[in-house]
Amino acid sequence: MPSIDVCFSPELLHLYDLKGKAVVAVDILRATSTMVTAFAHGAADIYPVMQLEECRTYAEKGCLTAAERDGVKAEGFDLGNSPFGYMSGNVQGRSIAITTTNGTRAIRLSEAAEEIVVGAFLNLQAVADHLSKLQLDVLVVCAGWKGKFNLEDTLFAGALVERLQDRFASENDATLASLYLYQTAKQDLPGFLRQSSHVRRLENLEINKDVEFCLQHDTFSVLPVWKQDRLI
Ligand code: 3SL
């Protein structure tokens, strides 16, 4: 039986061997939720990059560019990191280059894995179905916040473990902790997360509707998968 494990921050990735594994990269608030939303609204592909300057260069290649730092859209880019910015038909058929504080970093630092998929509550079942077919050992890589643990990515990890627990061995402490946390919180995720650091950060930016949207389960069936230098 394959196994599932959880890495609480990209800073802990050096402790894991990614070779031969499937990574689920997650940044619930909001990068991976936004990427899933972009694909669900017709985006052709997405280039997640780490630096603002690199992201800017993709405009010359005909890409839409998207950038966020500290929760705010960076100046001079077409799009920010709110899922609502990707829903108006504006990304249909387009390539997007995106850089965010933590989410794009979690994806790029996972490149040694056999496969990387992008997960969010919004496409939770699509991720679970894909991993069940793939039968590789799984590592959920939480983007966290600037190297630190966060609740929302851990809750996603727990939700995924719950859906996979019959088919995957999940006996390590990180996985058990994620599962218990999710089972405690799942009746009211927005309420549970009200005191969390990033929800408070986003509240100060007055984007509560983003939080509510990103906590919805199984809204989309898209599954962004890493191929060479981008998500398709
Ligand atoms: O850290 C990130 O990658 C972002 O998703 C943060 S924010 O939700 O845009 O503030």
TrEMBL record:
Class of enzymatic activity (EC top level): hydrolase
The enzyme's E.C. designation: 3.1.3.71
Catalytic activity: (2R)-O-phospho-3-sulfolactate + H2O = (2R)-3-sulfolactate + phosphate
InterPro entries attached to this UniProt entry: ComB-like, ComB-like_sf
Keyword Magnesium: yes
Domain of life where this protein originates: Bacteria
Cofactor: Mg(2+)
Similarity-based family: Belongs to the ComB family.
Name this protein carries in UniProt: Probable 2-phosphosulfolactate phosphatase
